Amino acid sequence: MASIITKKILDEPELYLIRVNDDEIKYFEATWYIPEGITYNSYLMKLDNAIVLFDTVKKEYAEMFLEELRKIVDLEEITHIIIHHTEPDHTGALSKVLEANGYRAKVLGTAFARNLLEGFYGSEIVKNFQVVKDGEELKIGGKTFRFITVPWLHWPDTMITYVVEDKLIFSCDAGGGYSIPRGIDDSNEDVVKEYLPYVTKYVVTVIGHYHKYIVQNIKKLKKLGIIDNAKMILPGHGLIWRKNPKRIFEHYERIGAGVPEKDKVLVIYDSMYGFVEERMKVVIDELKRLGKKPIVYRFTDRENPAIADILGEVPTAEAIIIGASTFEADIHPRIRYTLFEILDKANYEKPVLIIGAFGWGGVAGRKIETLIARSKFDHVATIESRGRPTEEDREKIREAIKALF
Ligand SMILES: Cc1cc2nc3c(=O)[nH]c(=O)nc-3n(C[C@H](O)[C@H](O)[C@H](O)COP(=O)(O)O)c2cc1C
């Protein structure tokens, strides 16, 4: 069952985290399998003559959220609600918050956010909306709030807020990750280590399609000098970064650039009756002989790994090896879909080796090769043959693997 926690995270300014731990979700955005769950983080800041709420939570948890907020604030006293990004996992509870607030609060966001909110929730929600522009500063409760747009991270509406005097970055989706971390911030290294692979999975599945904007927007924030100076980075999902705030954006940058982990090789294949698998055993043995660390995902009559997990492995792989059978004159459907998502979400300059098996006419290998040739990936070789692999096929596979590195 989902739960909610409130933690005071700063005394000056008085700042609270209100975090829904959603362990009920199965498929984020109705697509990405996340048995690890996700959190929705909202923040409340109490200032002289102003109370500011940063984002809300998913609609399903609106009542729980209001109840929790009431423990720390009279809802009618909220003066400003900052909307960084209108995706309903952060805005689903906004209508209820505004109702309870008597529509007293000013809602702040980009012009894009205003239009999206109106489209999602009706005109009532934007009747007290104030559009803020890139770089604009507002004095609220004696503090300077600077709004910086980070378009396509990962919607056109997205912005972050920088509280100048306190060097706080409220970053919503940017800096977020999947899972329900055991802590609330990065103070425990074990918790961080456990969490970072879920950040990678989140970035690729959610922002991956726009990954060039990760690099672009982080460059923009760096140029403004706010990342180096940040005292805290407060995302809309997962851990807060206060011990080493820069670390999360450095991690994002590494994902954006596809920096590999030494010796990690991603191996993905389907095998209906074992012939592709025989080839992939040669692949895995040869990789191990070369001191590589194969990470293997296979689609068989017993296994159906989550595409989201496979996507999360791509940025940190040194090379990728795809094994596929020909299926109705095409690529096996599981590999076809996996490849489609990889090319859409995790398109990197990495070497790819293709291994294929067919019955009466090889098609899968050729089709994969065509798709890879049109992508950023570097096609190294395609080794495709009929039925069970011969000794000659095995030798070709071993040679091709050596050529990968
Ligand atoms: C549903 C199905 C469709 C297939 N379609 C083709 C095809 O269009 N062309 C072909 O050459 N072989 C086709 N085959 C044969 C497989 O590609 C071949 O047996 C291959 O070795 C399967 O590898 P696996 O044993 O790892 O699944 C098909 C097999 C199945 C079960």
UniProtKB/TrEMBL annotation:
Annotated Pfam families: ODP (PF19583)
Segments forming domain Flavodoxin-like: 265-405
Entry superkingdom: Archaea
CDD domains (UniProt xref): flavodiiron_proteins_MBL-fold (cd07709)
Record InterPro entries: Flavodoxin/NO_synth, Flavoprotein-like_sf, Metallo-B-lactamas, ODP_dom, RibonucZ/Hydroxyglut_hydro, Rubredoxin-O_OxRdtase
PANTHER family, alphabetized: ANAEROBIC NITRIC OXIDE REDUCTASE FLAVORUBREDOXIN (PTHR43717)
Record-given protein name: FprA family A-type flavoprotein
Organism: Pyrococcus kukulkanii
